[in-house]
């Protein structure tokens, strides 16, 4: 799974990196994470390669929701905002920008929990799509068979 994390605080990036590396080694997962310090850095990345994009809310140049809004049509990634307190973002703002959740960044394990959740959701969606395609193929085949009278 490819993940992009945008956070202007290098210390926080290092903490997240250590937590994610620990998670990968304990669980046998292979989350590949790219860290960006701001909008310009993320803007130079190939956004379509990411399944998940997480942005800090309080970025130096623009707010995180503005960043996610500006890229939402350039990626199919699930997007989330991180911040230090709850209740600072309206539901309308989240819905309008296709943001899946708000992550309380005071505890870095919240980021890991949400990524695990989204990884499961993506696996379920993939499985569902495979079953749906199989069903469609069967239905198409059945429609070509002669009907009995």
Looking at the overall shape, the CATH architecture is 3-Layer(aba) Sandwich
- For the biggest β-sheet, the strand order reads 2-1-3-4-5
Rg is 19 Å
Structural class comes to: alpha/beta
Number of strands: 5
- Total of helices: 5
The N- and C-terminal alpha carbons lie at a distance of 52 Å
CATH topology: Rossmann fold
Q: CATH superfamily name? A: Response regulator
What count of structural domains? 1
Shape: elongated
pLDDT < 50 stretches = none
Residue-averaged pLDDT: 86
Textual characterization of the structure:
This protein has about 150 residues and is an alpha/beta fold. The protein has one domain: 3-Layer(aba) Sandwich (Rossmann fold), CATH 3.40.50. The protein has helices at about 10-25, 40-45, 65-70, 90-95, 110-145; strands at about 1-5, 30-35, 50-55, 80-85, 100-105. A 5-stranded parallel β-sheet has the order 2-1-3-4-5, sandwiched between helices. Helix 3 (about 65-70) links the parallel strand 3 and strand 4. The longest helix has about 35 residues, at about 110-145. The protein is elongated, with a radius of gyration of 19 Å. The mean pLDDT is about 85.
